[in-house]
Amino acid sequence: MIKYLGSKRVLIPRIKEEVAGLSGVRTVLDLFSGTSRVGHALKGRGYRVYANDHNAFAATLATAYVQADRRLWLEPARRLIAELNALPGEPGWFTEIFCVRSRYLQPENGARVDAIRERIASLTLEPVLEAIALVSLMEAADRVDSTVGVQMAYLKRWAPRSFQPLALRVPELLDGEGSASCLEAREAASRFPADLAYLDPPYNQHSYLGNYHVWESLVRWDKPDVYGVAMKRVDVRERGSDFNRRGAIVAALEAVLDAVQARYLIVSFSDEGYLTVETLRAMLAAHGTVRVAEVPHRRYIGSQIGIYNPQGKKVGRPGRRTNREHLFVVETGMVPSA
Q1: Across residues 31-57, what is the average pLDDT?
Q2: Strand runs labelled E in the chain
Q3: pLDDT tens track for 129-176
Q4: In a domain, 38, yes or no
Q5: What is the sign, positive or negative, of the torsion defined by CA atoms of 299, 304, 310, 316?
Q6: What are the residues whose beta carbons fall under 8 Å from the beta carbon of 75, sequence distance 6 or more?
Q7: pLDDT at 319
Q8: DSSP 8-class letter at 324
Q9: Sign (positive/negative) of CA torsion 294, 300, 306, 309?
């Protein structure tokens, strides 16, 4: 799966342990699914997962990793990805924006991205198969990019991995049913009742759309106008989230919590977030009994190497190397309607 700020990869064993300890959980709603690591892991444990994210690239990841049933899609995916892997490069919009005007990928790999993405767009694929192909392409590009994991900027010198040739792989599909949606969290919460709702909302100023705008443009393939050194989509300025605003996050989270229809909640939140543990505990206590687990977590690499200006000069010092992730487990007593 793609490199991702705030990824819960290291927390997944603890999350699975917490879910397994809850009585009668068969269905899980993942409201802010991101890379779908959590949804994928829980689907692998036999839960039926409804994954949701308002960013198109994240909803596409969820379609492949949560909605797609391996028994139906593995062989069609293998045939399609073999065909796409054989395409020669043909430079186009992606190469110009992300390899010439900026340096996210080497131009040779960018030309492959262009050719493969145009071929996917030209085919009349069923939505699930198209999502699998797009995830394969997104992850292939991620393996040869030249960033430290986010797309707010690219490295001044090419990363060693960027010299490797881009190669598609079939994503790790799982047997079983699930669903994926691309809705605002409040709407998804009201639409999908479940035994358990898992919430991992944005928690500070870092916008996932801004940090992963390359993948959003690759998935949407709308070839938008861009701005700045990072070549962000212009709609990054317009599609802001209240969860990224200190003055709005409380109301945004309360609205989502009010809309959730689940017997249990698990809320993941970092101590780098706008809300304190005490504030969040009080908010959740209005919905049921609360207990909190604390998990040390290594911080994103950018916080460890320091802060640099656009000219490559170091202008800040690294902060602390670890933070604490908090898992709030709430028993609401609600019996969700079918």
Answers
A1: 97
A2: 27-30, 48-52, 179-181, 194-199, 226-227, 232-233, 262-270, 289-298, 307-308, 314-316, 322-331
A3: 999 999 999 999 999 999 988 999 899 999 999 999 999 999 999 999
A4: no
A5: positive
A6: none
A7: 56
A8: E
A9: negative
Q: Phi then psi for 293, rounded to 5 degrees? A: -110, 140
Which SS3 state, helix, strand or coil, does residue 194 take?
strand
Quick check: helix, strand or coil at residue 121? helix
Boundaries of domain holding 99: 70-172+203-240
295 is a domain residue: no
Instruction: Tell me the C-alpha distance between 89 and 99, whole Å.
Output: 13
Would residue 116 count as lying in a domain? yes
Share of the chain above pLDDT 90, in %: 76
pLDDT of amino acid 310: 47
Residue 302 has pLDDT above 60, yes or no: no
Q: Looking at the domain assignment, is residue 44 inside a domain? A: no
Q: Are 32 and 176 in contact (CB under 8 A)?
A: no
Q: Above 50 in pLDDT, residue 253?
A: yes
